[in-house]
Fold each of these.
Amino acid sequence: MAETGTNKIIVIGGGYAGLRVVEKLAKNPHNEIRLFDKNSYHFMQTEVYDLIANEEDFAQVSVDLFTFCMGFDGNVVFTKQEVCTVDFSNKKVITSAQRHKYDYLVIAVGARTKFVTDVVGLRTHAHGIKVLHRAMHFKQKFEMALFKRVEQSGTTCSAINIVVAGGGLSGVEIAAQMASFAKRFYRKNNFICRKLSIILINSGEKILQGLDEKLVTKSDERLQELGVSIRHKCRVAEINEHSVTLSSAEVLPMDFMVFAGGIEPNALVCDLQLEKNERGYIITNSHLQVSHHEEVFAIGDCTTIYNKNSIVAPTADTAEQTAEICARNIANLIHKKPLIAHAIKSRGVLIALGRNYAVGKVYGIYVSGYFAFVIKKIVERVYAKRLDMHSCKGCKKIFID
Ligand SMILES: Cc1cc2nc3c(=O)[nH]c(=O)nc-3n(C[C@H](O)[C@H](O)[C@H](O)COP(=O)(O)OP(=O)(O)OC[C@H]3O[C@@H](n4cnc5c(N)ncnc54)[C@H](O)[C@@H]3O)c2cc1C
């Protein structure tokens, strides 16, 4: 496309990667950008622990994509449609309603919770938290369970049994946050019945596999302090309405269960006729282009990022870094300049472990306790503020123009 002509750019997915690439590309007035998402909002998954613990409501963890896109200089449009497939030969994105032509395409559709199919009852009885409506449903169930115990107070005192499957970042954060919230709830309201059992199921020998040893130890200690008990080296074998059977044959009573046992490529990625790796993620080159289509990029959780042969953890931070490289490379393609190779690596990790407490390593420095919590909050607030700036501009246009 000529530098002075219009560049039709389609971005599929309004997540961390998709929004960042839109922000960057929108700076060129010759770029005509269309963002597709199946939902009308961007969901800040990194803050789901606060949603569940009632520290934030759903409006604080989501951003309206219509107003966000309206906040640019008229060159970004949002379309709330699920993309069914892409016709790469004819450069068209296909939804159930329309076909849209592109000059450049960015695939940023993230990943989905991996509900393993061989676990009987998993889909029916476990909650995922990667999508907002499921997280909301889970939050409400958790609150209702606490309320029921309040109602029963003075007559019976039965425990709330929560099982969290998955000893990764999200499983650990959710278990810690629920334990912390319930403790505070019981204390604040002086309830007599304070029985709560949170059991974290972890398939490995230690939680937070792949993370720094010091962070693993600190997180482990904090979970113990909060009363979360961990079952290492076992998996969920079967679930019914009231219990979970583990691979160790132990049967745990269960009121509800969160499944955070990993992610996998989503339906669109599975469908696309592109080269994928052994786990089904889109293969990209060092410029983040897919094979055989130089105008098509894949960024964020739907691809696997390598740095010197080791996998870079799929996080919001990684997703944003891929978006920035992708935007620069699309600009370079437009201006016929050489593309840049990425050297993405994790800038840090911050793990929320209950109210006012986090542990982390940021740019190589260990942080813990309230200080780490404050850093995590600042990172989240800066991110939300940035998106809010566009949304506010969009809102003003809708209501004043
Ligand atoms: C509980 C939890 C806690 C986490 N905590 C952290 C943390 O503390 N720090 C951190 O860095 N990372 C964290 N992560 C990971 C982080 O959220 C992901 O790595 C990040 O969301 C990836 O961004 P993305 O843009 O690739 O995908 P997503 O943010 O998942 O966005 C993908 C978007 O694509 C849309 N979409 C999908 N398919 C289609 C389709 N066919 N058509 C149209 N739209 C589609 C979706 O609706 C979604 O809006 C956490 C994740 C979870 C679940």
Amino acid sequence: MPPDAIPARGLAAFSPTAPLGRWDFARRPVGPRDVRVAIDYCGICHSDVHTVRGEWGPISYPLVPGHEIVGRVAEVGSAVSRWQVGDRVGVGCMVASCRQCGPCAQGLEQYCDAGFTDTYNGKDLVSGGVTQGGYSDTIVVDDHFVLRVPEGLDAAAAAPLLCAGITTWSPLTHWGTGPGKRVGVVGIGGLGHMAVKLASALGAEVVAITRSAAKAAEARRLGAHDAVVATETGALKPHRSSLDLIIDTVGTGHDLEPLVGLLRMHGTLCLVGGAPEPHSAVRAFSVIGKRRSIAGSLIGGIAETQAMLDFCGARGITSDVELIGVDGVNAAYERVVHADVRYRFVIDLATLDGGR
Ligand SMILES: [Zn+2]
Ligand SMILES: [Zn+2]
């Protein structure tokens, strides 16, 4: 590490099975185009759990996860002019991309032809080391990947907007969600509860599709106009061929056929959940008859993430969160695995100061 590297403290995974523990490490020095963010809050995404447990492939340890980061600007590089120390900012799932390819030129860095750099477990293009995420007191990020978080929003509750929010906002807006459109949301968890809030705020009529009666009631509270328990016989029937778009947030393999049947002509079923196993096959006639599409969508670009944050700032939209200290993270992971969270854990990084 260079002598001007920045000391950082965090919570790291040391193996696929051991609990996360405290770790002192170093951030790269603040370069001319960099911003250093003092982190206040970081959300716990199910991706964090999959990654540190090696469920999406082998990784190098120690690894600090976390890509739903909210903090304040603590330091700016000499070539950075748009931030001031103290600005309320966020960092999401990406910290770098090639910035030159077609997708990058369109502001869709998540589809960078060279592959974007993950906020954690990525290859740091500047230092050559492994990127470390937001369960930490500070992070150094290229200015382009820093987002303005509206001051009016609760900072802890805004953190999940950086992943769960944009992951649902991007397909909702790409497929023209607005007044007169009917949108289905499958799975009412971290992603799904944001999809319900955002789709209804965009003016669409929202139908939540869940497997639990309790979640159906919750979905109505979150803004869904209707909520169906998919496992109840005949529950989906009234909605056949009626939806313009379905955002499917379920993170495990499941049967898509009943969902495709809910789409009206030209409707799209969009997958956003990172299921490691395949979904069941769909019969050709299920999509042919009404020229239906099955699609997927990955997080969102920097420009659209900023648009989403500004929209949420204007409407007062945040995630429903459960705030925890760093000592609660391992227990929270178990509850994430069992979908026992309403709807996102957020870590208060001020608690890193205690209990060393
Ligand atoms: Zn995430
Ligand atoms: Zn690119």
